[in-house]
Every structure is written in C-alpha cells, then in structure tokens.
Amino acid sequence: MTLTPRATATLVTVAYLISASCFIIGLKRLSSPRTAVKGNLIGAVGMLLAVLATLVQTGVGSLGLILAGLAIGSVIGALLALKIEMTAMPQMVALLNGFGGAASALVASAELFKILPHGTNASAFVTVPIILGALIGWVTFTGSLIAFAKLQEIMTTAPITYPGQNIFNMILSAVTLVLAVLIVRDPTRVSYFWILSALSAVLGVLAVIPIGGADMPVVIALLNSYSGLAACATGFAINNNALIISGSLVGASGVILTAIMCKAMNRSLANVLFSAFGSAPEEGTAAAAGATGTVKGYDAEDVAIVFDAAQTVIIVPGYGMAVAQAQHAVRELADLLKERGTTVMYAIHPVAGRMPGHMNVLLAEANVPYEELLDLDQVNPHFPEADVALVVGANDITNPAARTEKSSPIYGMPILDVDKARTIVVLKRSMRPGFAGVDNPLYTLPQTMMFFGDAKASLMKLIQELKELGS
Amino acid sequence: MTLETFLAAFTVFTLAVFIGFEVISKVPPTLHTPLMSGSNAISGITIVGALVACSEVHAGKITVWLGFFALILATINVVGGFLVTDRMLKMFVKKPRGAGAAGRTEKGE
After folding, report:
1. Which residue of A85, A147, A318, A358 has the fewest CB atoms within a 10 Å radius of its CB?
2. Residue A383 maps to which CATH number?
3. Are residues A353 and A224 in the same domain?
4. Which residues on chain B are in Cβ contact (under 8 Å) with A99?
5. Does A199 touch chain B (CB under 8 A)?
6. A212 and A321 assigned to the same domain
C-alpha cells in the first residue's frame, strides 16, 4: 500500500494526537494505585503508536540502522529495568533522565546540521529551540550522571564546594549565553555550537556537585523536569507536537514534585541549589552544640519488652532502611505486632529517602498495603497517643530541633513529631549525625531507646525476642 | 518555522502545561516515584525526533549518526522507563499476604 505524502502526513499527525492523548490518560490514571498499572500501559501503547507512525513517515531509507538502534536500546533498557533493585530506584531514575536529556540534545544537534544548507537564513524560531534543546539536554545529561554517581556512592555524597563557586558558574553561564546569541546570528558557526554543547555539559556537572545527598529528592525532581523541557525545546526545533505536548507534561510533573520537595524542607529552590547545604562548616558548629545529654543504648530484649506492651506503634522509615534493605524485616515486625493486636501505622515524610516516594516504593515491595502509609499531616496527630515510635534509619526528618532551635540549619523544616510518642526506639548504625550535620536531640531524650546496629539485623533480633515473649 | 507555525506550537505548549499541572497535582505522594519514572519514559518521546533524524539520509552523515545515538539513548529511556514503572506499580496492587489483611479491601481511595 502506498500513500501520497499528504495522506501520510495527515495520518502521522493524527497518530501523534492519539499518542499525546494516551500520555495524558496514562498520567491521569496514576492518581490511584489501582488504576496506575493500566495507565502506564496506555502510555506505553501511545509511545509505540508514535514510533510506528514515524516509521511509516520516514520510510525504509535507513531501516537497518533504525532497527539496530531500537534493538540495542531495548535490550539495555529492559536489562536495566528488570535487574535493578528497588532500593536503587533513585539511581535508575537519574540515569534514565540523563539518557532522555542526551537524546533530546542529540536530536537538536542533528536538526542544526540539517538546516545548515539554509545557512544564515535560518529562522530564529528554529535556531533558538535548537540551542535550548542542546543546552538543557546536556545539562540534564551530565547533571543526572553526577546525581547517579552520588546516589550510587561512586563519588562523595557530601557537597563539593570551592571558593568563588557561584561566581564561576555565573561567568560560565554568561559565556554560554553570548555563544548562543552568536549562533542565532549565524548558525553556520558550527564550532561555536560544539563549544556551547561542551559548556552546557560542564554546567550540568557544576550545578549538581555542590548539592548533598539528602537534597537529592529535589535534584532528581528538577532534572526530571529538565528532561521534559529538553524534549519540548527539541519539539519546537523540529516542529513536532508530540514532543511539545509530552515534554510539557513531564516538565510540569517535575516542577510540581520539585515544589513539593522544597516545601517539605521549608527551603527555597535557590537555597537547595546554591547553598551547599550540609557541607563541612555547619557540621562543626552542630557537633559543638549537641554535646549535652547522654545516649542510652539498649539491646533487643529491652526493646522487645516495650513492643510487647504497646497498643499503638508508628514506624518511621528513612534512608537507613533503604541502605540496610530492611523493608521486608519492617513488614515482618509489623505483621507480628498486628497478630498480637497492636495497631501499626507508617509515617512517611515527603523527603525521606533519596527521591520523591522512595519509602512508599520500598514498602510496597515488601507488601505493605499503601493505605497504612500516612503523610506528615495525617500522622502527626497520632504521635501523642502512640506507645512506640520506631525510627528505622531516619534522622533529620525526626529532629525536634527543627521546631525549636532557631540556630539550627534545619530550623523550620516540618518534621514527624516522634518525640511526642511515649517511647521512641531508634534503629541506627552509629551516632554519626544525619545529612544536615546536625546532632539530633531526640537521641538524648529520657524516653528514647537507642538500638545500635544494622537496621535489618536489629529488626530480626527484635522479632525473635518478641516471638519468645509471646510463647 | 515561521511566526505563525511558532505561535501554533506555542499554543499547544501552553495548553499542555496547564493540563500537565492539572493532571499531575492529583497524583498521591505514594506514587511519586512511579510518576517520575513513568513521566521519564514519556519524555523519551524524543525517540520520534531521533527516528526522523536517523532517516534523513540526504541531510548528511552527521545528522544520521547523531540521530542514531539519540535513538539508542531514547529507546533505553522509553523501554527502561515503562518497564521499571510497570514493575513498581504492580507491587502497589499486590494482595497483602497473611493475616490482618481482611477489612482493608477496596474501601475509600
């Protein structure tokens, strides 16, 4: 069957419209866990349709190359998706973000080479989106790779800072801007375009290195938004509505998540991006301030007795639960407690872990029903009536200093009110302060029981003791 | 691209941003990670641009090769993104096992 070029173009445009609708319906179905699986599937069908329609349009000119590209990408993508541990999900998302950004940058670059024969006559409506696509795309790519390296702990999770950092970054951005203007005025200056691409890649690295580990939820959300914007800019460059619509949806999603994360830390986006929060100097002052009070360590038997008598237990997971892979042990303990008639709730702080929703995914993996996971606002009224608050590898999000200590770097951050529970059991590897470098006065409260050790091993011991008490 | 086509594209962009905010602000916090990986897969739509670039044989080798590398990366993004999202979302609907699961069925939410 052969179609006229006009008919093909119409067909493709309609197919893109259907794909875009699929994406919107798919995202809409993410509003409930029960409809979400199908929503994701609808999105995937939309994508498949867009790819097939494009293949109809492009014909079979370089079919071999296209099939090779699709095959290589599919194998790598599938392997990554099926092998990855749930605890490593933040890294995975960072990596995928980066690939998306790089792909958009490459497509934008390819478009530049396509319009080069038109020379200096190329419209700014084309060149500006090309430059934006490359710029945002490369920033997303290298920024995501740095985020990946930090999350994977290939490089230090602490902020990397040097004197004049912000000024240096500003100068680099200004140089990039000047280059962009020069390219718009004469798109045939290809060498300028390569320099601009390289500078964008450098900017991506420099933007993410001063951001510390616990601020990663914000960075990942922001990079997510960038990958959408890069696709969007590239969409303008090649005048493709499918890219523009999908890119804006993703951009909006990233912006919303970024805003939620910043609000949950009571900090502005600028503060997260430029203040190198949690770097060395703050750690020094905090260590000096928190030297009062004594920390009491307990063993599994002591802790089990407290749980034995408890009517209501609130579990507060943090990044430490992910590190220790303790989510299954947590659920096991919760099951045991429920069998004994104890009420169990989970308190999920929006920035617990390393990405938005990190704790929810881990607990879902361990088969914890999502109805038991409560938000900050939902759960805080329950702490005063809780017999035990069990803190599993969470630190700053439980620090009462955020409420009272005006000098504390985390002052004003909304926290989980674990200190209001009758007894607080803290599972922790050591007395190392949390990410913000602030000592946690929670640990020296008289009603706090510190249970040192690997969270998973501690939970298993606790379960064992509790079973013995029960029999 | 002329001013007219730009404005048409910009109209689409503006409306899509509004739809994005409207739809995504309804996603509950518990699904924020799958939202990120899922929307990530959607941003892999740039695969369409990669396919086009890849087949622009007359535009020269550079365009084709840039398109080819873009195609590989975008495909990883799309396939990896949708698959990993599917894996995660399925965990949310798994039946809770063991005792204590009764009475927590489909009410509310």
Report:
1. A85
2. 3.40.50.1220
3. no
4. 73-74, 76-77, 80
5. no
6. no
Number of domains making up chain A: 3
- Domain boundary among the residues A42, A62, A83 is at A83
Looking at the complex, does the CB of residue B102 fall below 8 Å from at least one CB of chain A?
no
From chain A, the residues in CB contact with B57 under 8 A are 61-62
Mean residue pLDDT across chain A: 89
CB contacts, 8 Å: B108 with chain A: 371
Residue A295 lies in a domain: no
Q: Which domain holds residue A175?
A: 87-279
Q: Does A18 touch chain B (CB under 8 A)?
A: no
Quick: pLDDT tens for A36-77: 999 999 999 999 999 999 998 887 778 889 999 999 999 999
The one catalytic residue among A215, A396, A419, A439: A396
Residues A96, B108: C-beta atoms closer than 8 Å? no
3-class SS string, chain A: CCCCHHHHHHHHHHHHHHHHHHHHHHHHHHHCHHHHHHHHHHHHHHHHHHHHHHHHHHCCCCHHHHHHHHHHHHHHHHHHHHHCCHHHHHHHHHHHHHHHHHHHHHHHHHHHHHHHHHHHHCCHHHHHHHHHHHHHHHHHHHHHHHHHHHHCCCCCCCCCCCCCHHHHHHHHHHHHHHHHHHHHHCCCCHHHHHHHHHHHHHHHHHHHCCCCHHHHHHHHHHHHHHHHHHHHHHHHHCCCHHHHHHHHHHHHHHHHHHHHHHHHHCCCHHHHHHCCCCCHHHHHHHHHHCCCCCCCECCHHHHHHHHHHCCEEEEEECHHHHHCCCHHHHHHHHHHHHHCCCEEEEEECCCCCCCCCHHHHHHHHCCCCHHHEEEHHHHHHHHHHCCEEEEECCCHHHCCHHHHCCCCCCCCCCCCCHHHCCEEEEEECCCCCCCCCCCCHHHHCCCEEEEECCHHHHHHHHHHHHHHHHC
Q: Write out pLDDT tens, residues A328-339.
A: 999 999 999 999
Instruction: Please tell me whether residues A208 and A347 are part of one structural domain.
Output: no
Range of lowest pLDDT (A20-24, A110-114, A420-424, B55-59): B55-59
The answer to whether residue A454 is catalytic is no
Domain identity same for A347 and A264: no
Whether residue B6 and residue A125 make contact (CB cut-off 8 A), yes or no, is yes
A369 → chain B, closest CA residue = B96
Query: Mind telling me how many Å the CA of A20 is from chain B's nearest CA?
Result: 9
Q: Does B7 touch chain A (CB under 8 A)?
A: no
Q: How many CB pairs under 8 A join A and B?
A: 389
* A positions 203-232 inside 8 Å of B (CB): 220-221, 224, 227-228, 230-232
Among the partner residues B36, B66, B108, nearest to A106 by beta-carbon distance? B66
Q: Which residues in chain B are contacts of A360 at CB distance < 8 A?
A: 29-33
Q: Are residues A157 and A209 in the same domain?
A: yes
